[in-house]
Design a protein that fits this description.
By secondary structure, this protein is α+β, with helices and mostly antiparallel strands. The chain has two domains: about 100 residues, no CATH class; about 120 residues, no CATH class. Helices cover about 25% and strands about 35% of the residues. The chain contains six helices and nine strands; from the N terminus they run αββββαααβββββαα. The strands form two sheets. Strands 5, 6, 7, 8 and 9 form a five-stranded mixed sheet that branches. A four-stranded antiparallel sheet has the order 1-2-3-4. A hairpin with a 5-residue loop joins strand 2 and strand 3. The protein is elongated.
């Protein structure tokens, strides 16, 4: 297993790792068949240290060092890391077989956004910039940035949703901001289904570069997350 994963890393990085050791292993079910997966901790000659996965498939991130993973211990514990790599594997496998899986239908995206921005919704994304799209089977994901409007007063709903000033919800009301719209500025949104979306800040490399992979992995879990498993 160690030699196999070292060979895989050699193919990815163009050089063999300095060290590889098992980090966590589990049995899972893939395509209704039992399979083994092992997280592997490795160090490259240039000092880059991270975690990859081997077993039923091989995968790793080339730009997510252990220092970044250490910041996310509560979020990406061992079981969640397996799910994250599974999501990455699903996305990459689908894109190799079907590059069109990442090609958005603009008219469909406009229809999705129109539902998200309905004036009857309690929370509405505004100042939207589309980033990514992905389709796996019948499920679709839309990734975009913008601000979240707390739609508390339907009478003050803006006529245009592309240039809306949003003040942080925790900011106290004063004469200067009287009548202003409040919410959560600078959000990253992931939309799935017809009108469901989640949001958060772009604080980590996963939020900035791999938010779509994270979203796919959360909806295609191989193992049940255990927050005490890291």
């Amino acid at each position: 297993m160690i030699n196999h994963f070292a060979g895989y890393l050699n193919e990815v990085f163009g050089i063999r790792p300095e060290s590889v050791r098992p980090y966590y292993s589990c049995r899972v079910t893939i395509n209704r068949k039992p399979a083994s997966l092992s997280l592997m901790k490795y160090v490259m000659p240039d000092g880059y240290e991270s975690i990859g996965i081997t077993g039923a498939f091989d995968n790793c991130f080339t730009d997510v060092p252990m220092a970044e993973l250490d910041k996310l211990r509560r979020r990406f514990h061992k079981q969640a890391l397996i799910n994250l790599f599974w999501g990455k594997h699903l996305v990459e496998t689908e894109l190799r077989a079907n590059p069109g899986a990442a090609k958005v239908d603009k008219s469909r995206w406009r229809a999705v956004l129109q539902k998200l921005q309905a004036r009857t919704n309690r929370q509405v994304p505004v100042n939207v910039t589309f980033l990514e799209y992905f389709k796996l089977g019948k499920k679709e994901w839309y990734l975009f940035t913008g601000d979240l409007l707390y739609n508390q007063d339907k009478k003050s709903f803006p006529t245009s949703l592309n240039d809306v000033e949003i003040l942080p919800a925790g900011e106290p009301r004063t004469k200067r901001n009287l009548g202003k719209l409040f919410g959560e500025p600078h959000q990253l949104f992931v939309c799935w289904g017809k009108n469901d979306f989640g949001r958060g800040g772009r604080h980590t490399i996963f939020d900035r570069k791999y938010a779509l992979i994270s979203a796919v992995s959360r909806q295609n879990k191989l193992v049940k997350d255990n927050p005490w498993g890291f």
